[in-house]
Write a structure and sequence with these properties.
single chain; about 725 residues; 22-stranded antiparallel beta barrel; 5-stranded mixed sheet; 5 helices
Length: about 725
């Protein structure tokens, strides 16, 4: 396919950059071996440090494409939010709407916690980075993890017991223009005979204060202005979080192991949003002066038991049972003042939602040899989700205007059966074959719509190959094929309307579900080239393509004088792109004593929706270009520093023939320094969002009657944090 006319040199430039890095990496190793040190004898003993395989080694030997980062990389920048860690990963971006892979967000990305799907409404930032052992990014589907992953899968693996005794306390305080933000982390672990235990606890209270501006404008068919309004907004919020994760591991003889893992989270969010509208031309909105008040409390608890048994010399059985409970209470108020300044609308909304899930997974692995492993497994879950929403509207004098009371229930039964075969066919070739069948039954109901039943099942064949040109080469090629899908969420099926508080229009419509939605089905291909440099360095250039049928878009229509947006299936879409990913040490390239680690990645995405006229008919506000560059310098045994720059490109996205949305690029610069004060304590300083860039987006609707647009721009502030860590 042809590149966009505005960027004809991007592909050659990226290919040249990748080739140059590879040549430079190889050149750094073309030199004679270091001579032996004079005076040494064969009997001299050197200290040997025994370590396990690095994340780079695991990636190189894995028959499936799995990009994994460990605790060292997760904690390097001392981030308060897990989202800040994720946006540094290749192909991953994080926006206000959530996590994206290959520019696609929402349900196109499968988010797992220890291999289990995260519940709807779950915030990724509710998990503290200190609780995470590693993060796995899987661009190509794996039968064991599920195939609801058109864009890819992100698996967050929480910390496990390793039996080592640990007593660590971290205390920090930060500032981002909204007051002091305290946080604390306590890590305890130990082992007694056959039982290992650990407890991780975190608490934080971050604050946020932002200034924003909204500009609404409308013109008629003759381009005469109907109105022009500017609204200034002040947002102030505070989020209090608490996490505790106790874990136990029992070794029952030489062949059995039992794990009990738990996670309890509490999250309280309180924020206010004050808006004041100034009319520059035309008339005002319904409530030019208004205030939003929100208070929410969320409890999340997870508990799962796991039994592992060694059968014979090569076979293993892994069975796990789990339960999850997610509960959220939201109190929301909207106070609207009429153009004459009088109090006109008092809207209160109370929502209580629960999500209870029971799951069972199991896997039997049969090892025919050291080079051939066959696995069979199941993955089943029952989910019950309930939501009660009561909205009361009163006039300024207290008289009732409207009452909307509704219940929403969803029962979801899911069962998946899979088989996968990992086979090192030869020293140079590895093969992964997988087949997964997943059936889904959903019953969704409310007072107004009754109960809606839907049933779907998907067969997903998967194949991946890893090929090395020679047995001793540093190069290898990967190729993968997979069928993936995206099932509609229960709330997307309910024909229930969610009304906006002020200014309904084509750029600010009400939202409503569609009971006729069908799953999206995609066929995808992935290919990549990997070159390994030095001890832990690599350069990888990968490409992907997806063909999506029954792609879900949003329509815009007018009903009873109100604008409403509804999801619908819109035929076929295609997306493709590439990712350049590299990480290496300066010593891998040059003879130097400087301990400098370099990481960089770049992702370019294209997509086209057949039913939407071009140009810019991309998928779901797809991010066209994103990248990250990071430097970590170990200046001395006591001092280390790091700098990280992330870029997420903007652009125009046409949603329909009349409807389009545009956004500005986002640039983020973070820096951190870490001092080891002594053998048991350290101090670190981190700066986040140093550039403090303004972020903006614009939505435009054009038809025969004229043009309506809304621009939203918000400021951002730099954060500073000091953290003290002590090993007790």
């Amino acid at each position: 396919m042809r590149p966009h006319p505005s960027a004809p040199l991007r592909r050659p430039l990226t290919a040249s950059l990748a080739l140059g890095i590879v040549i430079l990496a190889d050149a750094g190793h073309v030199h004679a071996a270091d001579p032996p040190i004079a005076g040494t004898r064969a009997t001299d003993l050197q200290a040997v440090k025994v370590t396990g395989p690095s994340q780079t080694d695991l990636r190189r030997e894995d028959p499936t494409l799995r990009i994994s980062i460990g605790r060292e990389d997760i904690l390097r920048h001392h981030d308060d939010r897990l989202g800040s860690v994720l946006r540094r990963l290749p192909g991953v971006t994080v926006t206000a709407e959530g996590v994206r892979m290959r520019g696609l967000g929402g349900d196109h990305v499968q988010i797992l916690i220890d291999g289990d799907p995260a519940p709807a409404g779950f915030s990724i930032d509710s998990i503290a980075p200190d609780l995470v052992e590693r993060i796995e990014v899987l661009p190509t589907a794996v039968a064991e993890y599920g195939t609801r992953s058109i864009a890819g899968t992100i698996n967050i693996v929480l910390r496990r017991n390793d039996g080592a005794r640990q007593r660590t306390l971290k205390i920090s305080a930060g500032q981002s223009g909204a007051g002091i933000m305290p946080a604390a982390t306590l890590l305890l672990s130990g082992k007694r005979q056959a039982m290992a235990w650990s407890v991780s606890a975190t608490a934080s209270a971050p604050k946020e204060r932002l200034d924003a501006v909204i500009e609404d404008q409308a013109n008629d068919a003759q381009r005469e202005r109907l109105y022009l309004r500017r609204t200034d907004e002040r947002y102030a919020g505070r989020t209090s979080t608490f996490n505790v994760a106790p874990k136990l591991t029992w070794a029952l003889g030489d062949r059995d192991e039992v794990n009990w893992n738990n996670l309890l989270q509490y999250r309280k969010e309180a924020w206010t949003r004050d808006r004041e509208e100034v009319v520059l031309d035309g008339g005002p909105s319904d409530y030019p002066l208004n205030r939003w008040i929100n208070d929410s409390r969320t409890w999340t608890s997870r508990s799962d038991g796991q039994w592992k048994r060694q059968i014979g010399e090569r076979d293993t059985l892994d069975v796990r049972f789990g339960a999850m409970r997610f509960s959220r209470d939201v109190d929301f108020a909207f106070h609207g003042y009429a153009p004459d300044g009088n109090f006109a609308l008092d809207r209160s909304v109370r929502t209580h939602a629960t999500h209870t899930a029971y799951s069972s997974t199991g896997k039997y692995v049969s090892g025919f040899s050291d080079r051939h492993e066959l696995a069979f497994g199941w993955d089943g879950a029952y989910t019950d989700r309930n939501e009660r929403r009561v909205q009361r509207d009163r006039a300024g004098n207290g008289s009732p205007l409207d009452l909307i009371e509704d219940d929403y229930q969803a029962n979801i039964r899911r069962l998946a059966l899979y088989a996968q075969d990992q086979w090192r066919t030869s020293v140079r070739l590895q093969t992964y074959l997988g087949l997964r069948w997943e059936g889904l039954e959903t019953a969704v109901g409310s007072r107004t719509s009754g109960t809606l039943h839907s049933r779907s099942n998907v067969f997903s064949p998967i194949a991946q190959w890893v090929f090395k040109p020679t047995s001793s080469t540093k190069d290898q090629f990967r190729f993968g094929l997979a069928r993936t899908f995206n099932a509609p969420q229960p709330w997307q099926l309910l024909p229930r309307r969610y009304s906006v508080n002020n200014g309904n229009g084509p750029t600010n419509p009400d939202q409503q579900g569609n009971p006729a939605l069908r799953p999206e089905i995609a066929w995808g291909v992935d290919a990549s080239y990997e070159h390994y440099v030095g001890k832990d360095g690599l350069v990888s250039l990968g490409a992907y393509a997806r063909r999506i049928d029954d792609v879900i878009l949003r329509s815009l229509s007018v009903q009873d004088g109100l604008w409403i947006s509804t999801p619908y299936n819109a035929g076929r879409a295609q997306t493709h792109g590439f990712t350049l990913d590299t990480r290496f040490a300066l010593t891998d390239l040059l003879r130097t004593e400087v301990d400098l680690q370099i990481t960089a990645n770049l992702t370019r995405n294209w997509s086209r929706v057949a039913s939407v006229p071009g140009p810019d008919n991309r998928l779901a506000d797809q991010t066209p270009l994103s990248g990250n560059v990071g430097l970590h310098w170990q200046a001395s045994k006591r001092l280390s520093t790091s700098v990280d720059y992330s870029y997420s490109g903007g652009g125009t996205n046409r949603l329909s023939a009349e409807w389009e949305r545009a956004s500005t690029p986002e640039r983020t610069l973070d820096a951190a320094a870490d001092w080891k004060l002594d053998g048991t304590s350290r101090l670190n300083l981190s700066l986040s969002n140093v550039l403090q860039q303004r972020q903006g987006s614009r939505t435009v609707y054009r038809d025969a009657d004229g043009r309506v647009s809304r621009y939203t721009g918000s400021d951002s502030r730099m954060g500073i944090k000091v953290q003290y860590e002590k090993t007790l």
